[in-house]
Amino acid sequence: MENAFRFKKKFGQNFLTDANLLDAIVRDAGVEPDTTVLEIGAGAGALTRALAKTAKRVVAYEIDPDLKPVLAQTLSGSENVEVVFRDFMREDLPRLEGELGQYRVVANLPYYITTPLLMKFVEEAESCLGFCVMVQEEVAERFCAQAGSPAYGAVSAAIARRGTCRMVRKVPRTMFTPRPNVDSAVVRADFGEQFPVASVQAYRETVRAAFASRRKTLENNLMQTFRLSRTQAREALSAAGVPEGVRGETLSPKQLGTLSDVLVSQRILK
Ligand code: SAM
Predict the structure, then answer these.
(1) Whose CA is nearest to atom 11 of ligand 1?
(2) Dihedral angle sign, alpha carbons of residues 139, 145, 150, 154
(3) pTM of the prediction?
């Protein structure tokens, strides 16, 4: 890498260099010769280059313009790569999707925006086939957690509505430069509706309410979040087939979907 480049902690710059690991991530992601890949955070371009060896097209975003000369060097000869020097969080996803067609997200994500960034795809993406991303191990556990487990939360339930999610590889901190303070893991999600809901917005609000306070029962969380009387909350739970006194984190994503449909049918949510 160019001597002039200094790693910026504020952008979550922990780069990968091991060629075997990079090729393994490309395989983990299910990238094929006809795949369009959207990469977020090209860094010095090591993963971008590995992706470009197999994919049809790679569109890689990078927020840090100081990486321009580094990327130009790493990606010289990778004709199927376009690097966009922009903050991905400000990107208009529908516009980008119109340009990409069907695509997969593959990235070693900057840790400081991991969850909001992936939620953008989970909630808004139309032509995304799924993601395969490196995240902190603890975050990976949350993404893939099953109902009732300690790591299960609003993010697990949001992802589970959208697709299947599994941790495919653990990656020790020693594989990154500079070395972070935590270990990481690669998580793969394949999109494809798992269960239909009447309103995605209502599902999102129901999930948020269910996990609003883990110490409270679901009934109390519903009352507080949606300003319901106890009778209204009990009626909704009963219509959804949820026993009294349970906590939100014991409900599977599908049960949360049924509850959100009930709240829509009772005109509590839209
Ligand atoms: N892909 C490279 C690799 O695996 O070695 C770099 C990964 S590094 C963990 C994350 C990269 O994302 C950094 O290069 C950082 O500058 C970039 N980044 C951070 N925030 C970003 C944003 N909002 N939009 C685009 N890129 C961003």
Answers:
(1) 41
(2) positive
(3) 0.95
